[in-house]
Each structure stands twice: as structure tokens, then as C-alpha cells.
Design brief:
The protein has 564 residues and is of the alpha+beta class. The chain is 33% helix and 17% strand.
Length: 564
């Protein structure tokens, strides 16, 4: 079930009634880094989905240990041997892993601070405990399963989950550090550079918006000094997707031309997107409307990218949550409310954008890395006094002004000014406004008024309130009929991707609860004036442990109550 995540290698380790299985997507050390991975005497076994960007630094600290491979993830086995369970804060990267200590049959499972890589935990009726990168690997064997919380560790010795990631921003304390654009710029450049760690061809997903354009600009500027440039060339490859004539395609082409990248532009039609919906929902494992809308073009693009031989891409997720980039932040009533909302948004990323970016790409064996969610960069950005992040038209500050200003360098410009100051466009909008309108029309044709009227009886949990949401829910339930599955998907009202709490900022929003950025009436330059007209789609042309391969692939693991 998880082979799509890691088609390069299938690994299995069995110790009595404990099993660790792994599907590998080989990014770092493709020739010797097959998993599971071990310590020197193979008493410690680990399967990992992710990337450890500081693995060379950690290897230097572990100079008394002998490493078997060049895999960045092997350090986890040796760190556990050296420090026990108290090493997670030493890791700089994205990861989900399960580790088995065969000396006493104890095990731990852990997930990165933000939940960039997916992880689920389940329980069987026979007392077994399971872990997997995707819930489809658990649904047949587990009576109950949940999304494993980011920044947490599960220990069979200590019992239960505990949070290991405890930065200052997590407490939602209002910071007071003055804004320093050069500090912010340097932190982001370091975040991008460390993610150029790869032994395979890579590129950047480029929508032409601020976030992906900055990723591309920084990567392009520093690529020539990296190991990957010596292996695969110093010209950056960029990729964009959209309906013909869409805002993103035009902007992405302009950015690519400015940066001198080798640009690949992919087109899709509304009908092609609609035809892919069932497969998309199967892979992303959610019925959240915004996530389905945005995942579909990303899913279609990932297939094309993988066909070119590219196995890793950088992407711009996370910036809007950190800097309050969504258009509804224009209505934040105070800097305190602004900051609290950014904290809520970051804490929920594993259920939305991280889930989409990972699963839509891994569906085709493609890895997505997200520099904005670098652990150090988040600390720097979230320690800025939120007064600087507030949207202040009277001072010429639009959304994400602190980020735009940090890269506004007249002597050595990163981007053209009009790109640097382009209004926020949600990905599902930017690929072409008729994409969302076409989805709504398609749902209207398949969901009757009577069906929606009785939705609360059919779906009492997270009841769909629109025909589009109802349509996605029916597809989801076909693949994932268990109560546990539907409970992994968040609910609640939202406008332009807000949390339910932020809907309270403007009374008018409760009348137009649509997650599209165009629902931010009075803010978006192409905001809805009224309910959009119907648009025809044809008009717009173990005991097991479950893992994902090395984001590097797919994790799958199960354990008995007394063993992994």
C-alpha cells in the first residue's frame, strides 16, 4: 500500500514478534543507504521517513561509532545508543521514525517538530501497536488509529506520548524582539542552502508567488557552490502548473526568466483535475475542501516531474502561517490576536499544507522539502514582535511585509519588485480561478439539495455544509469507511483558510464561509462579488511498524503491546 512513496527499495527486519518494514525513496546515498538501518552490532534497528540535514555534524560528535552507510538517517540509531531517548532536539530536519531496541524489545516512535512528514499510530484488537506513514496501511489491521502529533515521542518504556519540541512560541507568549531584516534573511538563506543536500536531480516548485519565488531565488543564487551542482549542473530547474492563462503560470514564467532557471510549465484542464479527484483523495487521505482543491494540481504536476527523473523538490509551504500571509489577516484586531492565530496555524500545519505537500508528491515517489519550516527559521521569525507583521496600509505594509522587506535589496535584487510585492494568491486559486468554480459546478451536478439537507444524519461528525464538501466526503468514505479515519480530518468554519477562531474577526465572514482567498471580500483584488456562476468543466480547457521511505519513502510498523 505504501510502495508509491518509495519505489527504490523494500526493506524488512523481523525480531521475534516485532517487524519494521520500509519503502525507500533514495535521495541521499542511493547506493548504500537502504533501510532498515542499524548500529554497529545491529541491536538497534530504525526505519526513517525524512531527511536529517545536520547529519554530518552529528556524525562528528559520534566519532567513537562506526557507520555502515552514508545515509543521513543512520545517525538516529547511533544517537539513541549514545543518549537514549533524549536526542530528538539534536536533530535538524524532517522525520518520522520508529526505532526498536532488540536488547529489551522496547521501541520509540517520533515525529518532527511541525509534522512535515506524516505519521499515524494504531491499535489492533489483539493488543498490537502499529505505526505507518499513511493511514491506508493501518485501516485493515487497526480498530483505532490517529494522526501522530508533531513534536512528540512515543516510548514503550515510559508509556504514552510526550512532547519533546518546546520552543518559546509554542506557549503562545507574545514576543517583543525588534524586527531585523538581515537576521531574517540570513536565517532563511541558511534554511534553503541546507536543503540542497541531495545525490539526485532536484528542482523548485514555482508558483510565481512570493514564497516559492524566494525559495527559487535563494536556491539559484547558492546552487553553484554545492555538491549537487557538481553532480547535476548549476542551472536550477523550476516547475509550475495551472490552467492555461492562469495567474500563477504567467508569474512563474516571469520569475524563471529573471532567475535564469530551466523552467518546466505544465497545463491541466478542469476536466483532467476532476477525473483525478478520487485518486487524489485516496492518496492525501482527507476530505478537507481546501486541501483537495490544492492537492489536485500538485498531484498532477508531481507525476510529470517524476517522469523527468527528478526525485526531490523545494516548496514554499509554511510562510503564510508564520507571517500571517493569508488575506484574512488584514482583519486581525490586534497584534496579540495576530500572533495567536499564527501559532494556531503553525500547530495545525500537519493536518493541512504539510499533509498536502507530502502526500500529493509522494504519491509519485517525489520528495518535497519546505525551507520556511526550518526549525531555526521558525524560531527567528516567531520571535519578532508581531506589531511588525501587522498589515498596515497607512504605513505601506501589505501581508508578509517583514519577509518582503528582508529581501528587498536594491544593490543585489533577489526578485523584481512587482513579484516581491505581489498579493497573496492561494495555490488553489492561483492555478486558475475557473478551477474552483468548475469543482463547485461538478459537485452541484452530483449532490442534490436533498442530500445536502440530510447531511447531518448521514455524516453527523464534521457535517459537510456545501455540496462540494459533501462530494469529497462521499469519495473519502468509500476508501476509508472507519470512524477512526474520518476523525483524523479537522473541521470547523473557515474563511480564506482561517481557523474557526479567526472567523470571529469579521461578522460578514460567517455569511461566506469559503476557504478560497477570494472569500476575503474587501481584501482580495478578485474577491467574490456574489455566489460564483456555474462554470462548465468542459469550458476550461506489523506486529509491524509502518513507515515512509526516506522521505526516503514509506514507513510501516506494527507492534504487540509488549513489543514493537
Amino acid at each position: 500500500m505504501l510502495r508509491h512513496r518509495g519505489p527504490d527499495w523494500s526493506g524488512l527486519h523481523c525480531h521475534q514478534d516485532c517487524y519494521l518494514a520500509h519503502q525507500r525513496l533514495a535521495i541521499v546515498d542511493p547506493t548504500s543507504g537502504d533501510q532498515p538501518l542499524y548500529n554497529e552490532d545491529q541491536s538497534i534497528v530504525v526505519t526513517v521517513n525524512g531527511e536529517i540535514y545536520n547529519h554530518e555534524e552529528l556524525r562528528a560528535k559520534l566519532n567513537s561509532h562506526k557507520f555502515r552507510t552514508g545515509s543521513d538517517c543512520e545517525v538516529i540509531a547511533h544517537l539513541y545508543e549514545e543518549y537514549g531517548e533524549d536526542f530528538l532536539d539534536m536533530l535538524d530536519g524532517m522525520f518520522s521514525f520508529v526505532l526498536l531496541d532488540t536488547r529489551d524489545k522496547s521501541f520509540i516512535a517520533a515525529r518532527d517538530p511541525i509534522g512535515i512528514t506524516p505519521l499515524y499510530m494504531g491499535w489492533g484488537l489483539d493488543g498490537s501497536v502499529w505505526f505507518a506513514s499513511e493511514m491506508k496501511a493501518l485501516s485493515d489491521d487497526c480498530e483505532r488509529f490517529v494522526s501522530f502529533l508533531p513534536g512528540h515521542i512515543y516510548s514503550s518504556k515510559k508509556g504514552g506520548l510526550r512532547r519533546w519540541y518546546n520552543p518559546q512560541w509554542y506557549s503562545e507568549r507574545i514576543p517583543s524582539t525588534p524586527y531585523d531584516p538581515l537576521v531574517l534573511r540570513e536565517a532563511f538563506e541558511k534554511a534553503v542552502i541546507k536543503r540542497l543536500m541531495t545525490d539526485v536531480p532536484f528542482g523548485v516548485l514555482l508558483s510565481g508567488g512570493l514564497d516559492s519565488s524566494l525559495v527559487a531565488a535563494v536556491a539559484s543564487r547558492h546552487l553553484g557552490q554545492t555538491k549537487v551542482a557538481r553532480q547535476w549542473g548549476s542551472q536550477l530547474h523550476t516547475f509550475s502548473v495551472g490552467l492555461k492563462g492562469s495567474p500563477d503560470l504567467k508569474a512563474a514564467r516571469e520569475v524563471a526568466d529573471y532567475l535564469g532557471t530551466y523552467h518546466h510549465e505544465f497545463h491541466f484542464t478542469v476536466q483532467e483535475g476532476i477525473d483525478a479527484l478520487e485518486e487524489v483523495i485516496y492518496h492525501i487521505e482527507t476530505y478537507d475542501v481546501t486541501t483537495v482543491r490544492a492537492s489536485t494540481p500538485m498531484f498532477l504536476m508531481s507525476r510529470k516531474i517524476r517522469s523527468l527523473g527528478v526525485k526531490m523538490v523545494l516548496s514554499g509551504e509554511g510562510s503564510d502561517e508564520i507571517f500571517g500571509g493569508y488575506l484574512y489577516f488584514h482583519k486581525a484586531p490586534s497584534k496579540e490576536e495576530f500572533h495567536l492565530e499564527t501559532c494556531r496555524k503553525i500547530k495545525a500545519l500537519h493536518l493541512y499544507d504539510c499533509l498536502r505537500a507530502n502526500k500529493a508528491t509522494c504519491a509519485w515517489g517525489l520528495e518535497a522539502r519546505v525551507p520556511f519550516l526550518d526549525k531555526n527559521f521558525i524560531n527567528v521569525a516567531m520571535d519578532i514582535d508581531p506589531e511588525w507583521k501587522m498589515i498596515r496600509p497607512d504605513l505601506g505594509r501589505i501581508e508578509k511585509w517583514v519577509l518582503r522587506n528582508a529581501f528587498d535589496d536594491n544593490q543585489n535584487p533577489y526578485l523584481p519588485k512587482h513579484i516581491l510585492y505581489r498579493q497573496k494568491e492561494q495555490f488553489s486559486d492561483g492555478v486558475g480561478y475557473s478551477w474552483i468554480d468548475g469543482l463547485k459546478h461538478h459537485a452541484n451536478e452530483h449532490v442534490s439539495d436533498a442530500m445536502l439537507k440530510n447531511a447531518s444524519f448521514v455524516y453527523p461528525e464534521n457535517t459537510p455544509t456545501t455540496k462540494e464538501a459533501y462530494y469529497y466526503r462521499t469519495i473519502f468514505e468509500k476508501f476509508f469507511p472507519k470512524n477512526a479515519a474520518r476523525s483524523t480530518v479537522p473541521g470547523g468554519p473557515s474563511v480564506a483558510c482561517s481557523t474557526a477562531k479567526a472567523v470571529e474577526w469579521d461578522a460578514a465572514w460567517s455569511k461566506n464561509l469559503d476557504p478560497s482567498g477570494r472569500a476575503a471580500v474587501g481584501v482580495h483584488t478578485a474577491a467574490y462579488k456574489e455566489v460564483p456562476e456555474k462554470v462548465s468543466a468542459s469550458e476550461h480547457s506489523s506486529s509491524v511498524i509502518g513507515f515512509s521511505p526516506k522521505q526516503d519513502g514509506a514507513i510501516e510498523a506494527a507492534t504487540t503491546a509488549t513489543a514493537v
